[in-house]
Amino acid sequence: MRFESERWEKTMGMPSENGCFYYFNMRLNEESTAALIALRNATPHENISYNGWTCSYRNIRITVNGEPLISSAPVWNVYNGLGILLPFVRKEDALEAARRVCPTLKPQFSEGWSVQ
Q1: Which backbone phi and psi does 48 adopt, to 5 degrees?
Q2: Could you report how far apart the first and last alpha carbons of the chain are, in Å?
Q3: pLDDT reported for residue 78
Q4: What's the sign of the alpha-carbon dihedral 74, 78, 79, 85?
Q5: What is the DSSP letter of 111?
Q6: Is the whole-model pTM more than 0.90?
Q7: Does residue 60 register a pLDDT over 90?
Q8: What is the band of 111 on the pLDDT scale with cuts at 50, 70, 90?
Q9: Is 65 helix (H, G, I), strand (E, B) or coil?
Q10: Checking phi first, is residue 81 left (phi over 0); if not, alpha (psi -120 to 50) or beta?
Q11: What is the pLDDT of residue 56?
Q12: How far apart are CA 26 and CA 105, in angstroms?
């Protein structure tokens, strides 16, 4: 998903390139979603600072074929009932993450939601 970043940069320190940043969204089946939520709930919080923003964060590490899948801003990774969302500053990095996770599918971009 592509997001215009002006408000995100100012309020939450999310970096951007050319005024946008990208979330790679991995949708999961019901069983995998339940396992993800259980893992998320069992993962302890870490207090971290990122780009001027400090928060409590559950640092779940994702690997693909034994290699870590690291977003541009791990503090903004999302693990919820909708799946896993990983933010990337560059569109090319989001596409590369998608190819690493599922090389046979063609990634599709959509516009992100707006923050009011």
Answers
A1: -135, 155
A2: 18
A3: 86
A4: negative
A5: B
A6: no
A7: no
A8: low
A9: coil
A10: alpha
A11: 82
A12: 12
Please state, in angstroms and rounded to a whole number, the distance separating the CA atoms of residues 60 and 52. 21
Helix (H, G, I), strand (E, B) or coil at 46: strand
SS3 category, 48: strand
Helices (H), 1-116: 6-12, 30-42, 91-101
Q: Copy the structure tokens of residue 115.
A: 């923050």
Q: If pLDDT is split at 50, 70 and 90, which confidence band does 68 have?
A: very high
Higher pLDDT: 9 or 113? It is: 9
Could you tell me if 97 and 86 are in contact, meaning their C-beta atoms sit under 8 angstroms apart? yes
CB atoms within 10 A of CB 39: 12
Tell me the C-alpha distance between 108 and 116, whole Å.
25
Place of tokens 């959509």: 110
Evaluate the CA torsion angle 22, 43, 56, 32 in order and state its sign.
positive
